[in-house]
Amino acid sequence: MGSNSNVSKRRIPKQDRSIQNRDKILDAGLKLFSEKGYYDTTTNEIAKVAGVSIGSLYSYFNDKDAIFLSILDSYHKKFLSFFHEKDEDLSYELYARDIRQWLRNLMVKLLDIHESVKTLNREMNIMYHSKPQVARIMDTQTERIRTMTMSFIARSGSSVYDIEATTAIIVDFISTVIDRILYKENDNLDKDNIIEAAVDILAKYLS
Fold first, then answer.
1. Whole-angstrom Cα distance, residue 25 to residue 31?
2. Would the pLDDT of 144 be above 90?
3. From residue 53, how far is each of 27, 50, 104, 189 by CA, in Å?
4. From CA 33, how far away is CA 40, in angstroms rounded?
5. Per-residue DSSP letters for 53-79?
């Protein structure tokens, strides 16, 4: 995958029509990447779905990688906005008062943002080991959740065996729960029941 400089080499749209064209390209890219996958999508297809010429597409983006990176950057910013320090749904006050609700909020928020780009997220998991920039973004997101959780466990005085190892296992466990809900579509288990079972397991361990 090309570097971030691929995006900056192309002109930055300033007029409304140019901004609209760029947004249409990104929307079309997201649609096709989600439906067909990254590797089976071409820039010609993206231009066609966006309703712009291939020349217009290349005036904004060098290649398919640059389009994907722009989409990934927007997704990453949205993710970080979900998990900011002043979020009352994930505050330490709530963690200390009602750890079950805090865990529930965390899982629901993760599920919401991953569900909004469900197929794209599957593509990201596939590309994790082959595209360093994808891995970097996914690792940053995991680290944001891990750091927040570890800080709260430490402040609560919970007597876990090893706080770093415990936090890593908790975050991995939650990730597995989210993946189960998203991708095991033939599973007859109710989504809310899966979340409640996960909350029950984690809350009993951390309380």
1. 10
2. no
3. 15, 9, 46, 46
4. 8
5. -HHHHHHH-SSHHHHHHHHHHHHHHHH
Ramachandran bin of 127, using left for φ above 0, alpha for ψ from -120 to 50, beta for the remaining angles: alpha
pLDDT of residue 2: 43
pLDDT of residue 48: 96
| Two tokens, residue 69 | 């990176």
Residues 23-43 have pLDDT tens digits of 999 999 999 988 888 889 999
Tell me the two tokens of residue 118. 């469900």
Tally the C-alpha atoms within 13 A of residue 171's C-alpha that lie toward its C-beta.
Answer: 20
What pLDDT is recorded for position 16? 65
Confidence at residue 188, expressed as pLDDT on a 0 to 100 scale: 83
Find out whether 83 and 110 touch, Cβ atoms under 8 Å.
no
For 193, the token pair is 């029941």
Asked if 38 and 127 count as a contact pair (C-beta separation under 8 A), the reply is yes
